[in-house]
Amino acid sequence: MFDDRYDLDPVARMKPRRGPVERRDVPLAKGLVLEHTESEWCGAVVGAREGLVQLEDFRGKVRAFPLADGFLVDGKPVRLVRPTAPAGTRKRTASGSFAAPQQRARVAMPSRIFVEGKHDAELVEQVWGDDLRVEGVVVELLQGADNLEQVLADFAPGPDRRAGVLLDHLVRGSKETRIADTIARGPHGNHVLIVGHPFVDIWQAVKPARVGLQEWPTIPRSIEWKTGICRALGWPSEEQADIADAWSRIRSRVRDFRDLEPELVGRVEHLIDFVTVD
Predict the structure, then answer these.
(1) Which phi and psi angles does 12 have, rounded to 5°?
(2) Taking a C-beta distance cutoff of 8 angstroms, is the pair 191, 161 a contact?
(3) What is the signed CA dihedral for 151, 155, 160, 164, rounded to 10 degrees?
(4) 98 DSSP assignment
(5) How far apart, in whole angstroms, are the C-alpha atoms of residue 49 and residue 178?
(6) 115 φ/ψ angles, rounded to the nearest 5 degrees
(7) What pLDDT score was predicted for residue 268?
(8) How far does CA 191 lie from the centroid of its chain?
(9) Residue 66 pairs with which residues in a beta bridge?
(10) Measured between alpha carbons, how far is 229 from 212 in angstroms, rounded to an integer?
(11) What is the DSSP letter of 85?
């Protein structure tokens, strides 16, 4: 009898497949486990913005990849698509307001909102960015509350040029409170609104449950606060890049205003009203 053990050509079967890879569409959703085909990075979806999807692996490390890249789900090629809202549903922004119809960008209005640092600005943009662009409000950095008086002197607030200021740790007896009181009594006081949250840092305005905590840990004053938070969470903290990576990880967990403490949400809304309402 004819032995058919070698009837098929195993080498031919190993030849690479020609033509485009067929990918099924998969709606992008939190918790969806993906494998990035090029890097073989595997993780659950924890966020998506600006054309990027963020994947967190089992060690808690987060990396971002372009949505248009190739991904696998259960070993099969997929194309990530953003979920669509049902017909007739009005889209809401991350701040909870109804999204305005798409329109040409507005010229920036003369009034401004000032925040202490880069992380504050990034969080405000992430949650309130759509609203601010519709109104034409620009957010600028102070690079620390100590610079506020000089920044306002250069900005020269007036009746048609208001300044809203968001400060960290605005509590009784703090340095920030003393600075705010001095400015309120100064020549620009009538055209400046200074508000603040009680937290040591803007990181703490993110609800601790979003990073798996019941509450943010108390850090001794002898340890820099962000460094102490990273150590308490078991994250690297030796270099500035580690701090930046930790903030990226925390911010990626913020989906909308409901993931922030009310003490921050209310203050930012107050500032927006102050600089936009006549």
Answers:
(1) -65, -35
(2) yes
(3) -20
(4) B
(5) 38
(6) -125, 160
(7) 94
(8) 30
(9) 52
(10) 13
(11) P
